[in-house]
Design goal:
Elements (H helix, E strand, L loop, with lengths): L1 E3 L4 E3 L11 E9 L6 E13 L3 E10 L2 E10 L4 E8 L8 E7 L6 E8 L1
Antiparallel strand pairs: 1-3, 1-9, 2-3, 3-4, 4-5, 5-6, 6-7, 7-8, 8-9
């Protein structure tokens, strides 16, 4: 699936500019793998952990059949893998992981690949 990162907002905390503890919040639309049909939404929060390199994130993906929650790193450059920490509806008790990678080079969309166990 493809997330359109249209609402991402960073709240600057502590030292001015990019610094540990800054907060990234979002509530975005999510589309199918062909990036054509909207299939759900996500919302979450990330905390800057390594300046210029990494965030630690928590979010919920909401689909018609239920929700999935994930937790893990989001890197400024490169792919990452987050843990599936649970779910509701058809995803109740879900575990596994979610691979995250940039969709294109503009930083406005991301590919999510869920491996549910």
């Amino acid at each position: 699936m493809v997330e359109h990162a249209t609402t991402d907002a960073v709240t600057d905390t502590g030292a001015s500019g990019d610094s540990a503890g800054d907060i990234l919040t979002f509530a975005n639309e999510v589309y199918d793998a062909d990036d054509k049909a909207k299939i759900g939404t996500d919302q979450g929060i990330c905390f800057r952990t390594v300046v210029g390199k990494a965030w630690e994130c928590f979010w919920t993906l909401s689909l018609d059949k239920g929700q999935l929650t994930v937790e893990g790193p989001f890197y400024d450059a490169g792919d990452s893998v987050l843990a599936i920490t649970g779910g509701t509806g058809e995803f109740a008790g879900a575990t596994g992981d979610m691979a995250l990678s940039a969709h294109g080079t503009e930083g406005t969309a991301y590919d999510f690949t869920y491996h549910i166990k």
